[in-house]
Design brief:
mainly alpha, 65% helix
């Protein structure tokens, strides 16, 4: 489990040294999938994700992101 301070620094993960490059890409993907009406997952991001994750892992990441988003939306009425 990550330290509490690591969760606080997600917004500035690009500058954080304790996140691995693959983790930074996963956080960026999360932001784009979560805000897909305004951000989209552009080809450039897709290529960076695939540098660190294979197709199966990519699909699993997107499914997890959407599952968490749906769960939070149902609980807090924001879907």
């Amino acid at each position: 489990m990550k330290k509490k301070t690591e969760y606080i620094l997600i917004d500035t993960c690009e500058e954080c040294e304790f996140y691995k490059e693959a983790e930074k890409i996963a956080i960026e993907l999360t932001e784009h999938v979560t805000f897909i009406p305004t951000k989209w997952v552009l080809d450039q991001l897709y290529q960076r994700v695939h540098y660190h994750y294979d197709e199966k892992q990519y699909v699993e990441l997107v499914l997890m992101i959407n599952q968490i988003r749906a769960d939070k939306g149902i609980r807090f009425g924001s879907i």
